[in-house]
Amino acid sequence: MPEMPEVETVRRTVAARVAGRRIEAVEVRRPKFVEPLTPEEFAQRVTGRRIAEVDRRGKYLILRLTEDGAPGGARAGSGGAKANGAGAKAKPAGEIIIHLKMAGRLLVCRTGEVLEPKLEKHTHVVFRLEGDEELRHIDLRHFGRVSYVAGARDRAGYAAHPKLKGLAALGPEPLSPDFTYEHLKAGLARRKTKIKPLLLDQSFVAGLGNIYADESLYRARIHPERRANELKPREVRALFEAIQGIIAEAIAHRGTTIATYVDGEGRRGEFAAMLLAYGRTGEKCSRCGTPIERIVLGGRSTHFCPKCQKLPGAKRRVAPRKKVARTTVRRDQKVVQ
Ligand SMILES: [Zn+2]
User: Can 3 be counted among the known catalytic residues?
Assistant: First the structure.
């Protein structure tokens, strides 16, 4: 599924095309996407507004709207593209918040452009923009969500919305100034849980999904089942640097395409070739040559090098679990070959 670097890549490509433009009309083909509003209510709230900027929090894309009038945002955003108006400050008019979920994509196309039948069939929301272009939300698996909140950067408003509780609860972004070594160290010290599931907890750090959690732990040489509060200071430092490094590199390579992900211009991400642990079950570790193992942890498939990422006391504590891990690997390889 798209993780944060992929959503950030979508944000960048989409922002370059839609920021500063007015929404002329909205067509909701699948009412479920805009619940709890009806398609008419949703269209009424956003039609005639201007998209001042496209921002992102975790895996949520946020289109900040202003009253039509002067183009451009009333407030400068955190990295979102902005249109420069003639100095007049347009009044904020709420936000459209899009979650792409497992297989969603946003495409900017010409008005009325006919895409391949599969994409046409699964186009659920269409924003018609001034300048004869459309922003389309396409989702082959129909899990996506498009929400509207009246306020801007409104944590209470997000929490009150039935589809945005996850957004309200998000922790700091890995590349934001809030996510510091001290923050990570203090957060880990408070928790006895296993490190991998903790990294996936979006209230702990926002936007680190399964792929990048595995890669970060691999780079930092930390076994995914280590207890958070038992990591040594040098390991916490290595993990902090690995998380920031992996996320920045993934964004620079426009994300990872495993299955269907494409950016706002239909291009695939290039980071998949650079993954060293995720999806590499049975392949040799790039550092020591030991085959990468796969286990299931917290319901998620987890990849690591058993030699570079040691579990202290493993012999005593997890002998039976190791057996399960080997079976899983074998079963995996049969499927793949
Ligand atoms: Zn290794």
Answer: yes
Q: Coil, helix or strand for 303?
A: strand
pLDDT in tens, 276-308: 999 999 999 999 999 999 999 999 999 999 999
Q: pTM (2 decimals)?
A: 0.80
Q: Is 322 a catalytic residue?
A: no
Domains and CATH numbers, the chain: 4-168 (3.20.190.10), 181-336 (1.10.8.50)
Distance (Å, whole) CA 239 – CA 202: 17
- Is residue 2 among the annotated active site residues? yes
Those residues whose beta carbon sits under 5 angstroms from the ion ligand 1 are 285, 287-288, 290, 305, 307-308
Alpha-carbon distance of 333 to 328, in angstroms, equals 9
The single residue of 300, 307, 310, 322 carrying the catalytic annotation is 300
C-alpha 286 – ligand 1 centre gap (Å): 7
In terms of C-beta density within 10 A (0-12 exposed, 13-18 middle, 19 or more buried), how is residue 302 classed?
A: buried
Length of the chain equals: 337
